[in-house]
Design brief:
Distance between the termini: 31 Å
Pfam family, one: Complex1_51K
Order of helices and strands: HHHEEEEH
GO molecular function, one term: metal ion binding
Structural class: alpha+beta
Strand order of the largest sheet: 1-2
Keywords: 4Fe-4S, Iron, Iron-sulfur, Metal-binding
Number of domains: 2
InterPro entries: ComplexI_51kDa_subunit, NADH-UbQ_OxRdtase_51kDa_CS, Nuo51_FMN-bd, Nuo51_FMN-bd_sf, SLBB_dom
Protein name: NADH-ubiquinone oxidoreductase 51kDa subunit FMN-binding domain-containing protein
Helix content: 25-40%
Largest sheet: 2 strands, antiparallel
Strand content: 5-15%
Radius of gyration: 19 Å
């Protein structure tokens, strides 16, 4: 397939994960969600039909197509399968972004990929999971 990808700086912050807020930002407006319907597939960026996809989904799609859906579902645990990008930051020894199975325990994730907590686990005061 041959296609062009255009990168565009948005007008500012938008509500993470809300597709119509992203569209508003791309159009130079304040990044607030639109009322639906109409849905972006019918009326999206500048009134044109638009598909909004998470970059993480787009990135893993070729591997799933190559290896098959059963391979992807085989990662992790039943009802919590596949992989996820985890951004590990804060007071860890090696902040990083890593793709790992969905069901990995938090302590194992931090130990394996971020080298543990600075000063040891007794120094951990809080964890803020999010996306």
């Amino acid at each position: 397939y041959d296609f062009d990808v255009f990168m565009h700086r948005g007008a500012g912050a938008y509500i993470c994960g809300e597709e119509t807020a992203l569209i508003e930002s791309l159009e130079g407006k304040q990044g607030k969600p639109r009322l639906k319907p109409p849905f972006p597939a019918d009326v999206g960026v500048f009134g044109c039909p638009t598909t909004v996809a998470n970059v993480e989904t787009v990135a893993v799609a070729p591997t799933i197509c190559r290896r098959g859906g059963s391979w992807f579902v085989g990662l992790g645990r039943p009802r919590n399968s596949g992989t996820k990008l985890f951004n590990i930051s804060g007071h860890v020894n090696t902040p990083c972004t890593v793709e790992e199975e969905m069901s990995i325990p938090l302590k194992e994730l931090i130990e394996r990929h971020a080298g543990g907590i600075v000063g040891g686990w007794d120094n951990l005061l809080a964890v803020i999971p999010g996306g």
